[in-house]
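Recap from last week: sequence in, structure out.
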Amino acid sequence: SRLVGLKKLLLNVSRAVIRDVLVTFSPTEGPSMLNTTEKGKAGKIFLPKEIFRSLSGRIVHVVVTVLNIQQLGMFKEVNQAGQVLDNTVVGITVGNTSISGLRDPVQLTFTHSQLPHGVTPQCVFWDPSKGQAGGWHSSGCVTQPGDKKTVCSCDHLTFFTLLLNPALDGSTAQALMAVATAGCGVAMAFSIFTIAFCIFIRCRFRFEETVRINLGLHVNLVGSLFLLNLAFMLNSGLSGRIQPWTCKVLGGLTHYCLLCCFTWTALEGCQLYLLFVKVLGVYIHHYLAKLCLLGWGLPVLVVGVAGVIGSYGEYSIHTTDRQVIARLCWITSKHFLLHYITNCGYFSLIFLFNMALFGVVTQKSCSLQGTGVVQGGRKPWKVALVAAGLFCLLGATWALAFFTHDTSSAPVLYLFTVLNSLQGIFIFIWLVILYYPKTKETTGSLSHIIRYDKNTTVSQ
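Predicted structure tokens:
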């Protein structure tokens, strides 16, 4: 058998014997009755009398199962961030009855060596209904961490384990929250400056229709960034002190603003495709109005469906010692699969598309610079600025989120927080340098490419 340390402990519990039950277990030796000479190297299970009171008058079997899931290949959660302690799962059943809602909880003591820095123990049980293939859940379990042991107190019986999750230390977490809050304030200020600047130059100068559409796109993208930063500041400031229904609304609003930001980033990429790849005249009636309907309307459908299934609520961020450093109104842990689909999956498609366009535009711009098609002889620093601004405009800084899956990667978290906080500043400086003052050589925000060989290429 591939079961390591699997033993069945059969205890006859009758009407005359209603008492607490103490059992020890270890990954290598399985379960056994508590030994008074035990030196503490094995884990312990405490079953309260409450379990057996309702079963008095019957003979039932108490079965304790110790499994090595590494050899079995069982209990594997999709996108699991934590590691199961010693690959050990402990299952407890009493008779054939499902037991839950205990007032006097079951206690499991997991023994272990000193845990490494940046790891948080969490008592969890296997929930077959979580996601598509099941997953670990902590509802009904309380974790009491210690240096050499962790006690799990749970109000039901099932398969339990101790999950070691990567976590932030307190000082790093507080510093990141301070940087993020300050960055959001600065980003909101520069978003306002950028919107005002775009409106000013659109009214002050006569641009061709393509450039006016591009300015409209920039205003909507920066507007979505402003709303996202505002939602985050409201979230971090109000969550934990508001009613549950208000938290659900705020969580949905934050999710909506994030999806709007991603969608407008995708629309910026689509506009580049029309301008640089499909360069022949493309006219769409009320083009900007239709983009606005898509950019602000599509996220409404996603958030509406998520709200109907109750996906929003309070989400807590913990430190290594299980202290709560932030309570956010966001997608709850129970529905976190929605986060991977609507946020990670959605942005992945946008990122791949936009980066492919970035490569095409950069290559085409460099080739035209070399052949002398571009008028005005742009300086290398300005070309570099154009590339950096385009890189930021297409949302490349959000890609750092893929490297923050392990929350102990503090340097990447700092970089992600700072760059996304400064995204509004980058876009503002980029637009000011490229759009103002208006000259004969500057009619767009990337480069001006004149008519050449009967083909017209317009740049954004």
